[in-house]
Write a structure and sequence with these properties.
This protein has 15 helices and ten strands. By secondary structure, it is α/β, with parallel strands linked by helices. The strands form three sheets. Strands 3-1-2-4 form a four-stranded mixed sheet. Strands 7-6-5-8 form a four-stranded mixed sheet, sandwiched between helices. The radius of gyration is 28 Å and the shape is elongated.
């Protein structure tokens, strides 16, 4: 080997030791003691320098008798492409499983570490593998119930270990019992009451699980129509005196949004919506958060539109404080219950925003 070749290999060894990502695709390394060739950034244990050969092309490594590494898969596209394919395969495995496979089982099948799979999956989907599996199982459960299958069949088909677990999860996911869901929500009873605040009319509706809707608007009639459209098959009944106390608590939250109010909530939404809403609930009074920041916190930095849609779908005004969401420059970008109400709520909380910058 010439001195120039030695120097080139020394430079390659340095890049390999540093796991330089730009080295992938530029050359390949073969380990003579194992007969395996890898990408320079392969996460396997670093071999001894004297046992390493470098190749300009992977075909050269294979012609020399080396076989591709099963971990870094040097014969399987670029790292970015491989990561996309890895997550796609993980999704297929999750969707094909009757239950929710563990991350360790998925990682073992895919030949990667649990931590690596978890990071890649969340970066690509915004969900953990477990949360994705739970959402897919919930979708199968809803489809099965909608087709009219017996509940015992649905329990078996969706991989729940017990009827108790099934009923607990479905009640949280559906906001009603499986039987009520099969009837299109018929049989569910929501108590409601109409009130008045300094920001206009308010309608509060609750299930046995907690407050399911807090609607703000100009007139009660429109809000009641909105409530009926949101819970089209539910039976709506007026609340009694005890319920009025809960409504008064909600009105107090609107009048003084900076005051801590512990309300039992019946939060209904997709897995992604609930992730966005949990971020909102963590934003303290007097503070604001941008759509971009929410997208980053839920692991979907490019899903700004989806975040905005989740905020707009929030049925629990003020309790889930979507009024605290602003544009990255501090300006307002719409509000389901009206921009004037958004301004008023933020003013009451003492939040500082660039209110002159408004985008309807």
């Amino acid at each position: 080997m010439t001195a120039a070749a030695d120097n080139a290999d020394d430079a390659r060894w340095a890049r390999m030791a540093a796991r330089d990502p730009t080295a992938d695709g530029a050359f390949w390394r073969g380990v003579t003691t194992t007969g395996i060739y890898c990408r320079p950034t392969c996460g396997t244990r670093r071999p001894k320098r004297e046992n390493v050969r470098f190749f300009d092309q992977q075909e050269e490594a294979e012609a020399a008798g080396f076989r591709p590494c099963r971990r870094c898969r040097p014969d399987d596209g670029t790292p970015a492409t491989r990561n996309v394919e890895l997550v796609a395969e993980a999704c297929r495995l999750i969707e094909a499983d009757e239950g929710v496979p563990s991350v360790s089982a998925l990682a073992h099948t895919l030949g990667v570490s649990e931590g690596h799979l978890h990071r890649l999956f969340r970066a690509r989907t915004g969900l953990t593998p477990r949360a994705y599996g739970q959402e897919k199982r919930a979708q199968r459960m809803r489809s099965s119930l909608a087709l009219g299958r017996r509940i015992t069949e649905t329990i078996y088909e969706t991989g729940y270990g017990s009827s108790g677990r099934f009923y607990a999860v479905t009640r949280k996911s559906l906001g009603m019992t499986p039987t009520q869901y099969q009837a299109g929500g018929a049989g569910e009873t929501l108590r409601f009451a109409v009130g008045q605040t300094s920001l206009g009319a308010i309608v509060v509706a609750s299930s046995d699980a907690g407050v399911a809707a807090i609607l703000l608007g100009d007139d009660a009639e429109s809000l009641l129509q909105d409530l009926q459209e949101r819970f089209v098959h539910a039976t709506l009944i007026g609340g009694d005196e005890a319920y009025e106390a809960l409504v008064a608590q909600v009105v107090g939250l609107v009048e003084e949004p900076a005051t801590a109010q512990v309300l039992p909530l019946d939060v209904r939404g997709t897995a992604f919506q609930r992730r966005v809403w949990r971020v909102l609930q963590a934003v303290p009074p007097g503070s604001v958060i941008s759509y971009d920041e929410i997208a980053r916190r839920v692991g979907r930095p490019r899903a700004i539109g989806a975040v905005a849609s989740a905020c707009a779908s929030n049925p629990l005004a003020v309790a889930i404080p979507c009024h605290r969401v602003v544009k990255s420059d501090g300006g307002y970008w719409g509000y389901t219950w009206g921009l004037d109400r958004k301004r008023a709520l933020l003013l009451r909380e003492g939040a500082e925003t660039q209110s002159a910058s408004v985008a309807d």
